[in-house]
Amino acid sequence: MRLAHSLKIDVPKTDIHWVGNTPYFLVERYDRIKTTDGTIKRLHQEDFCQALGIMPELKYEREGGPGIQKSMGLLENFSSQPVADQRSFLHRIVFNYLIGNADAHGKNFSFLYKRNTPDLSPAYDMLCTAIYPNLAQKMAMRIGKEYDPDKVFFRHWSQLVPDTASAKKNLEKELTKTAALCLEKAHDLKSSLEKEGIKSPIFEEICDVISKRVKRVQDI
Q: Chain-centre distance of CA 28, in angstroms?
């Protein structure tokens, strides 16, 4: 989540705190606001499965859940700022691919109702699943028609944008830029966390996953 923030993805503030020797993960709620009289108001949130009337047990695209194109359609039809939210959504898709998050399913993207018309909510549940061998390696949402991250080529990415030379050129530029920045920021964050006393061999494993994904993107 902190890595996502460093890449200008809208995420809630997150911290790791300790009770004795036990760490815990603290996430600031983004679905609450303080009104002028000081009371706390809950904002309605609706994930993409709810918005499409899809049962939660069918949240993965291969099981009938929403994919990237259907999610883009939701944003186009219902977001108060569809172009900006579609751009943010695709940025998150690229980021999830780079960090090895295969669990970015339809319930991990949501609308947030700050007014009558919703916007894309801040990002949440962003983590590297690729380092855990007991978890599924295939992506929750396919890129183009490919679920296997090791078989994704630019022709698959290009299916996510309009079939024009300029759109594909802009996509390629965004992919390579985000990839290079993600790897740089990942190493910076690892060093920063270690200075805070937060150390784990998992950090290096995550960096290795990102490095491999970055190389794959840069080779396309």
A: 17
